[in-house]
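If I may wish for something, please sit down with the protein I am sending here and say whether tokens and residues agree:
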Amino acid sequence: MPQREPVLVGNGQGFWGDSILGPVRLVREGPLHYLTLDYLAEITMSIMQKQRAANPDAGYATDFVRMVERVLPECAEKGIKIIANAGGVNSPACAEAVAQVVRKLGLTGIRIGVVEGDDIMARLDDFIAAGDTFDNLETGEPISDHLDTVQSANVYLGAKPIADALAAGADIVITGRCTDPSLVVAPLVYEFGWSMTDYDKLAAATVAGHILECGTQSTGGNFDGWRDIPDLAHIGYPIAEAYADGTVVITKHDGTGGRVSKDTVTAQLLYELGDPERYLTPDVVARFDTIELSDDGPDRVKVTGVKGSEATPTYKVSMSMTDGYKLVGDLTVAGPDAVDKAKATADLLWARLEMDGVSFKPEQRLVELVGTNVCFDGMVPARDDAMEVLMRVGVREDDRRKADRVGMELASLITSGPPGLTGFAGGRPRASEVMAYWPTLIDKARVEATVTVEEVV
């Protein structure tokens, strides 16, 4: 028997950097049972791994800790549980930082759950020695030739360990890498007592999680009909109103801005979608081609009919590795003949660098004139009549010092190039590491997720 029905799950964080107003407003502006927060992307993991390498107490989303301090008293009062993948590559350190907030707030009885097991970076040599090759899913190349450049390696875990943490009484669940929809699937598995073989229900919850995962992209944000979306300043964050039979209604708090419609929900459903017949997660294979959307009143869209099947025997693994350096800098070029001046300025830059023995192959160089349809290159004819453009130049290079030489030369163009150049007050750009993405698989039997739940004292 379900513990309660419907269960209300709201997602207040679509990425690390999303507005802190999302979770704050979800908690304050209407009823809610679970607040989910999604902080992680592939590049985020490598950044966090570097942070932890420099400081063993770092490597998690620090924004999450500040957010908890703002909303936890009200969450505790209303019984709202928090689920977040803010742990990054150091979930225990994140949990301890949150525990310090709990103590600071003087709250009692708060239990924090930690899910670990996704970070396999330290075990790569052992896995490879045992026969795992971690072939790149796109190229088929094994990882062995690139081990010295790997910065992070994380398994995409599923909903089960999060649900286990909730069953153990956690008020806050902190995970490392898991799939985005699993943050929403987990509380429904726990609340409704679903089996991990209830494939249609898991698929329905996965669809709900996919709709919620990018926050306001399903309530009118980033929507091509944006002119008709009411009160974007107060856009409401999405909520899944879930039922034990797998039915889900996507909605938002009453009185908030934005819109929930079949169009806004469909736009998000198509986001990052590969094969609609096989949406792969560690929990289930969901069939997006079976989704039925129907209006259920103002700002309410019902999701039904979703079918699912058994998940694959492998986990996806996200690895990141260093792949040289890049430098990107820009100048604003204004006045008559702005486009011609910008092109000439870029040519001057490359010529002067070559005078100093610093040259780059064409494929290593980037020149973009923002304002001439750069974003639609090949689709819309470029403009040549703009009165101002942003000249963006960049290089990709294995030698960091060589890349930095471009930044040193860029500023000189203001006084030694065509007139109308400005916009260099931000200072000299510097080279930064390029992170390459390596998608691969690992047998599920090789990975064990662990769950710990402790009360803050």
Observations:
- Residues 39 and 167 are 23 Å apart (CA to CA).
- The first strand starts at residue 7 and ends at 11.
